[in-house]
Write a structure and sequence with these properties.
Elements: H1 2-33, E1 36-40, E2 49-52, E3 58-61, H2 69-73, E4 83-89, H3 94-97, H4 100-106, E5 108-114, H5 122-133, E6 138-140, E7 146-150, E8 153-159, E9 175-180, E10 183-187, H6 193-202, H7 205-208, E11 212-214, H8 226-232, E12 236-239, H9 252-260, E13 264-267, H10 268-271, E14 274-279, E15 283-287
Parallel strand pairs: 3-4, 4-5, 5-6, 10-11, 11-12, 12-13
Antiparallel strand pairs: 1-2, 1-14, 2-3, 7-8, 8-9, 9-10, 14-15
Length: 288
């Protein structure tokens, strides 16, 4: 009888291990099917990027000029969703922060990351007052900081690497790299070539290489040096710019360099909001 008990006990234990293995495999397979959402929102002449990790963490990097962002978020967020985990202000110019006042009226925001550059504009001063009145924690973005979004998605801050409070706003832009599985996305804000040179001096081409590039400063010739673009070596280049904008963005020189390095170019003035769905194994699919 004892031998029978041991025999059946062993069978039950073996079956339990088999079921557990299948369950774990199923969870791993489900995890591999979860996707990262990355979107460049069509807010005209400005920047607004939306990220949602495989576990649902939502980040908004810049918000474009006033009265543009809310309608564009409906492309990537359910209408009933009224919270954003964090916002990142890459620089305090109006074409990057003008929409954040609209955001704060509608969404509960968990944290604010900022570059440290300052502005005396009324738009910036009002935004600072709103953030303080809502008691939203403010965190200075610094090189070496890693934002864990969950599900294997992370944002590495590459710049600023120093106090930029006295710098021109563009020069002190937050520059970061978003990584998920085999996919990496370089996020450049309005960083000019002088800032690109600092980043090049502190990182190897292997560290900077990215599948996707958010082209700096809306495609301005003041950004996107050949050396920087060769180091990043993107397959896709995304440009956020307004149709018939007064600056002539994107400049021909930048488009020529992007074509020279073989990047496929997408532009909000021509393609509208650009949404990418990325998984760990197969990279990203673009839905324009």
């Amino acid at each position: 009888m004892l031998q029978n008990f041991k025999k059946y006990g062993l069978l039950i234990f073996t079956a339990f291990l088999l079921i557990a293995a299948v369950f774990i495999f199923h969870l791993d397979w489900q995890s591999s099917q979860r996707k990262l959402t990355f979107a460049m929102l069509d807010i005209g002449q400005g920047d607004a990027l939306f990220i949602e990790s495989p576990t649902g963490t939502q980040i908004l990097i810049d918000a474009g000029p006033p009265r543009k962002i809310l309608s564009q978020l409906l492309h990537v967020m359910p209408a009933f969703d009224r919270s954003i985990d964090a916002i990142i202000i890459t620089n305090p110019d109006q074409d990057h922060i003008g929409g954040f006042s609209d955001i704060l009226k509608v969404y509960k925001v968990g944290k604010v990351f900022y570059s440290g550059t300052l502005s005396d504009s009324k738009t910036y001063q009002n935004l600072e007052t709103e953030i303080k009145n809502k008691n939203i924690p403010e965190i200075l973005a610094k090189k070496g900081m890693v934002l864990n979004l969950g599900g294997g998605a992370v944002i590495d801050i590459l710049f600023p690497d120093r106090d930029v409070s006295s710098w021109p706003t563009n020069d002190g832009s937050v520059v970061a790299k978003l990584s998920y599985g085999k996919t990496s996305i370089m996020l450049t804000g309005d960083a000019p070539q002088s800032t690109e040179r600092i980043i090049l001096s502190e990182n190897s081409p292997a560290q900077l290489h990215s599948d996707i590039l958010k082209v700096g400063h809306h495609g301005s010739r003041n950004s996107s040096s050949l050396e920087f673009l060769q180091a990043v070596s993107p397959e896709y280049a995304l440009i956020s710019d307004g149709k018939d904008n007064k600056y002539g963005h994107p400049h021909k020189e930048v488009l020529d360099i992007l074509n020279q390095i073989g990047a496929k170019i997408f532009r909000t003035d021509q393609d509208g909001t650009i949404v990418m769905k990325c998984d760990k194994i197969n990279g990203c699919m673009i839905n324009k």
